[in-house]
Each structure stands twice: as structure tokens, then as C-alpha cells.
């Protein structure tokens, strides 16, 4: 009987030890799993932070690049703004203006220059202006003639007297990087705004002309008709006789 009890006690002790060992193994496994999860979470957070820092650095670099490009473009535009127009730039702006559908009929236009003729008047017959056909093979811009200064115009604008005349008035053309204008007058001009408000003049934004007058072949053809410089006034010439 005592032997049987002893064996039971031994078996019970073995079961308890086995149970404790299993519990310890489970706790170790859980602890190891928890450490792995913490390590993985820490690693993921570090990778996320690294990616975020890399993305921010890349974004800052891109922004700096864009800022540098904007600054360079601004400097380029400012330099161009302060640089006088070349003869070719002047001719191009005037050519686009002459090709504009908004140009008033009282002025010689680009289409007439391409056709080589324009309607005009030649004296008076029976109390009325005698209408004739005049030659339009050249559009002359003269800046050497004695012309009083014009105040209040756009910055950097140069003024020319255009010929041949298209009526009983003088034609003044003004050109700058931002605006080009054409003025009809029978007297000296002193104030730009007053001339524009007279109803016989027009002003065009160069940027609008570039957007709307896009036939480069026509622009080039009209440019070839324009002469620029210290030229003599071009008198009208009849071609219908």
C-alpha cells in the first residue's frame, strides 16, 4: 500500500514538473514573439521615418530647383525688359499689328501691303476727295525726322513716322516690349494718353498679338515690306493711271 502511494506521489510530481515546463516554454515563446513584434514595429517605424525624411528632402530639393528656375526666368525677363528692341523685333511687332483684324480701316494694313496697293485720295474733284489706287510695296518707319517728344507713353516706347500716308493725316507708330500703337494726327502730339483718347488711334498688347496673329509666313512677308531707320518720307504713288 505504501509502495502504491509512493508511486502515485512520484507520478503526480512528474506531471506537475511537466506542466511547469510547458508553461515556461509557452511564456518564453510569447515573450520571444512579443520581442519580435516590437522589433518589427520599431524597424517599420524607422523605415517609415526614413522614407518620410527622404520624401521631404526630395520635395525640398524639387522646390529649390523650381525656385531657382523661377528666379532665373524672372532675371531673364527683367534683363529682356530693360534691353532695347532690335530692328527685327520692331518689324515683327508692327507686322503683327498691321495684320490684326482690329486695325482701323483708315490705316494701311498688312493685307494691302501683301497685295501691293491700297485705296487713297488724290486731291479734290467736284468738291469731293478724288479716290485712287496707291502703291504699297513698302511700309517705311522713319525716326530721323524732326518729331517732338511724346510724354506719358509705355516704358521704353520708340516712335516712328510711318509712310506712305493713308489719308490727310500723319501716322505715328510707337513700339515697346509690352505695347505697340498707331496714331493718326494732323497736329503735333505731346501726350500719349490724349492721343489714344482722341478716337483716331489704337493700342495693342504685344502678348495678345502673339496669341492671335500666328501665321508666321504672313508675318515674315509683311516684315519684308517694312524698312526702318533714318529714311526719307515715302510719298504716295498712284498706280491706276
TrEMBL record:
<feature type="region of interest" description="Disordered">
    <location>
        <begin position="22"/>
        <end position="89"/>
    </location>
</feature>
<protein>
    <recommendedName>
        <fullName>Lipoprotein</fullName>
    </recommendedName>
</protein>
<feature type="compositionally biased region" description="Basic and acidic residues">
    <location>
        <begin position="22"/>
        <end position="79"/>
    </location>
</feature>
